[in-house]
Amino acid sequence: MNWQSFLDTFHNRRSGITEEIFIRSHDKEGLNPYQWVEKATPSRGDHLDLCCGSAPLFNDHDQMNVVRIDRSSGELFRAQERGADGLINGDALTLPLRSSAFTSVTISMALMLIQPMHQVISEVSRVMARDGYLNVILPGGGPFLGVSDLRIYRQIAKYGGERTLTFPNGRGVRTIRNETAKVGLAESMDDRRTFYFIAKSRDDAQLFVDSLYLKELPGLEGDQGLKDKILAQILDKGSMKIPLRMLGFRKVIDGVEVTD
Ligand SMILES: C[S@@+](CC[C@H](N)C(=O)[O-])C[C@H]1O[C@@H](n2cnc3c(N)ncnc32)[C@H](O)[C@@H]1O
Question: Which domains, from first to last, does the chain contain?
Fold first, then answer.
């Protein structure tokens, strides 16, 4: 399957779905994932939110000049509707931005999707100013889930015709570390948190399942019996765990890629 065209179709059909899930998910401190990454990012200067989706980040930060890039026109339409500024329809692989322009960059729930990863990282490093910050949110992975959540995630994968839920770059952590080191980005943070998505209705449970990039696009029918069972289990639990990981980097050298 061509992941990029799947993603384009998915995000044009279900624009804003990641935000719909994340703004209703909270950690033990009561923060949602966006508040978590905002807290870890300097709140002044020139900021790039790469793969911004519906623009959930940095909408109330007066001292930041935010540029937001995504290649989904559906997502950017949602972003525009909420009044987000600095929107650019562009591709993470070839950023239409000048070099060394940004004091900080965020990439929320996208780096595990885009290939080739080295090209995204190289572009991000190019547009970052020296001493700039890069904060990346990624899926945190199975080991941080309880038995019942794991079982439900497996059933959701099965419903979508897969053995497990996967991304083109896996969770990407090893590759991110290799590629950032090559372009002068030094790791400064590795944090993990579990968020709880609250499901009060069958629609909430359905929204959660739809957000998980099942290869059968939302709305197409899989095994109805299995789906009913999944939704009932989510409702019965009342919440689903979402384990996330945040990696942070600082740009320690200027200029071009360092080759081996
Ligand atoms: C899971 S969503 C995350 C959206 C947003 N950052 C958030 O956390 O709510 C992934 C986003 O990456 C965007 N995307 C995927 N591939 C891209 C690419 N090559 N260049 C730019 N955006 C891309 C999708 O359109 C989608 O909006």
Answer: 3-142+168-196+242-251 (3.40.50.150)
Question: Is the pTM of the predicted complex or chain greater than 0.70?
Answer: yes
Q: Whose CA is nearest to atom 8 of ligand 1?
A: 108
pLDDT at 62: 86
Q: Which protein residue's CA is at the shortest distance from atom 5 of ligand 1?
A: 53
Smallest Cα–Cα separation from 49: which of 140, 133, 113?
133
Which ligand 1 atom is the nearest neighbour of the CA of 15? 27
Please state the rounded mean pLDDT for residues 196-219: 87
CA 193, chain centre distance (Å): 14
Q: Regarding beta strands 102-108 and 87-89, do their DSSP bridges make them parallel or antiparallel, or are they unpaired?
A: unpaired
Model pLDDT, residue 257: 46
pLDDT in tens, 10-30: 999 999 999 999 999 999 999
Mode of pairing for the β-strands spanning 45-50 and 25-26: unpaired
What do you get for the CA distance between the two ends of the chain, in Å? 32
Q: Which of 75, 21, 31 is nearest to 52 (CA)?
A: 75
Ligand 1 pocket check for 114: Cβ under 6 Å: yes
